[in-house]
Write a structure and sequence with these properties.
single chain; about 375 residues
Length: about 375
Amino acid sequence: MTAQTILFDFTVDAEKISDCKQRQEIAKVVRGEVENIFPQVELVYQMTMEDGYFCVLTENKETIITLRIFRQGLVTMNIEYYLEEGKQPLMSFDSSKRLENILAKKLKVNSGQVLPTLKRGDVARYFPSSDERIIEYDIDAMVFEERSPFQKIQILHSKTLGNMLVLDELQNIAESDLIYTETLMCRGTENYEDKEICILGGGDGALLYELLKENPKYVVMLEIDELVMQACNKYLNTICGGVLEKRNGKNYDIIVGDCVQYMKKYISEHRKFDYVFGDLTDIPISGTPVGEIWDFIRTILESSFKILKSDGKFLTHGNGTACTESLELFEDQLRTLRPKVKFTTSKAFVPSFMEEWQFYQVSLA
């Protein structure tokens, strides 16, 4: 059950479409080739604009084709129709490429491209990269979807990644993403044996599950969203084991609540940890470090060092390595902390993010 959308883009010399007659001639060529694929197509609307030309074609009032010609030399065409379950697409990628090649030759374009069919419907397939490029996933099922008081929670099944947690339309973790957790915790570099650890967030349970394999003295996990934990316990058990089911053990506890309030409590009690993990929100994509999320990040940083031992470490994830400006802004925030801190970084390609991610290890200078 999907709406199928095929996008064609061409560029031509602007002088070839500088007047109305030239644009009409291009529209005529395009319509002629479209009729070879959709024989019953008819023109239902057209409009001349200051910056070009626009028209709408339809076949049987089911397939809609829009053509727009920009006076700057850009020509775009969109073909959209609804595909019933079990039916064959009206156009394959091969047939789309053939049409693109024919139009490119007849219009004498400078460049041309047709994208693979976009499929929109009851199953989400497209999610953004860290720098807001569109990534298509091989999602074949919606496993879970519900809204908690805090966020929209989805667990989708990918043919290659397994089940994948998505929060507010952003990829969080999939069954394929052990490398994410291992890089966050610097497995093989940090020694967690007999250490006291505090996890801020971490509702998918993966970090807690992996840390417990390192024989820590005690781990407390502070997660605000009960529904996230319930969903991950049921559908992402391969990455969290039984920790979200039991909620506590001989050397760990999961507390459902606001981590900021619990850190205030720990500060008043003079409680200290060897490690604090920030497994919360990503660094925002912004040009300046202002706004609610940046304020939250500053609060987390300042509070974390108040509950860390003098030789303790704060470990967190940052964002995609392509987001250099935002990562630099985060590092600027680290440099303003008092007492002064020092930091190192590590990187890993995370399968479900389909990009390289940056992680931070921060300690007192």
